[in-house]
Amino acid sequence: MYKLLSFLGLFISLHIFAQENLLDTSYGQSGGYTDFAFYNGSQMSGGLQIHSTAKLPDGRVLAVGVNFIARFTSNGLLDTTFNGTGYKLFSQSGNYLHIKPAGDGNYIIMDMGYGGKVQKIDINGNFISDFTIFNQSASYADIEIDQSGRIYLLKYTTTNAGSDYSLVRLLPNGVIDATFGNSGILALGFTYRYRRVEVNSNNEIFMAGQKIVAVSDQRIVVTKLQSDGSFDTSFGTGGTFLYSFGQNVDSSAQLMFLDNGKILGLTSGSICNGNNCFGLITYRLNANGTLDTTFKNTGISVIPVHSDSTPKKIVRLPDNTFMISGTGWYNTYALKMDENGDLDNSFGLNGKIITPQMLNKSVYNEGFELYGNSIVLFGIYSIAYGGQTRYVGTARKYFFNESYLGASEATSRNLKIYPNPVKHFLYFTTNEKVTGYDITDLNGRNIIHSKSKPSDNRINVEVLLSGFYIINIMVGQKIITTKFIKQ
After folding, report:
1. Is a pLDDT exceeding 90 seen at residue 33?
2. Residue 456 DSSP one-character state
3. Which end of the chain has fewer surrounding CB within 10 Å, N or C?
4. What is the mean pLDDT of residues 234-239?
């Protein structure tokens, strides 16, 4: 029988990043993170393939992905009050790409696959019966919900001529809004490859993506529509901004509206700017859809996060800076920057948090959620099982910087335990004077206790059953806490 556990070892990397010092080791089941994995016996066989999350008002997180809806606690564990297990699996194929607040305390979820459905669920993952399910055969690139609860679906069908895009608007109850476009559907055609739709506070609609001119010439595109679906011809050229220089950007796109009417955009690929050609591409448009050349002197710039720096999510913070997460090179990242494209060097390491690399695995960031001065990065990574590629979901929590570490967290950087997982003897090293230790299970039951330092910094754990444990090391008047796995 399959069972759902978390696993520590798969985030061990050949490249250890300084940002790992910022891990909140009280989070998750593995000292800072949880991997939501299925096991067949002792072999990992896949997991909850997370595609999108939404934080509830109480801090819990709803998540959707391939054939499931799940709920996690604010501490990164499966919330077993949700369906008894923390998740609901569906036997029929369903690749839920997005979950977004509907504005009425419920959530809209979207199936990205052909025949994909748009449905509404409550916080317990129950489908809302009075919501009209939208079910139209196509592939879906994005979903947006405006302030009045209307739903925008960016979809496309693939033909011999390429991808034919259209934008659908639904009313809050799921019924097609016949006042929009042509009976609720606006044809966009084959010219541009849109991947993002955003609606501002004036109900103006923006779509972003790329135009493929040639194999080595792929350009940034942003189109603006009025609220009724007509093109705003005062924006750019005939309603569209098209970056005029040859470059090679991918179709990923993120947009953020600034207070002065300007638009901050992000994508990835290659646009040479000084010595930087590859990384996270940032640009800024004026309100009229022209490139704002006061931004980095040219209007466009490259932040060298990694050679591959696909942006996944952007959120505006109370201090008017922006938090951005994305997929790097065999890892994921988060960074904090202002509207001028300058990184906040007090965040992470020089403005960035980059997770350890998982070489030879496919790794994807699927967004983040914020908890005060810490960030939880959600994503998936690949494993091989039964001659096939499977995916495992993961959640990983970091403090913004060292000033937010608690005393025990800051001290725990001076504690190393090994091996982890452990079979026989658990060793530890620390530069502080140890006065005792205890080991508890995840329910807080004390299993092993000592009021003195173990000889040779070695603890016999052979008596422990297989599972997860917490070790508390007493150093003076402080306690250093971390977690380990007994095999």
Report:
1. yes
2. G
3. N
4. 97
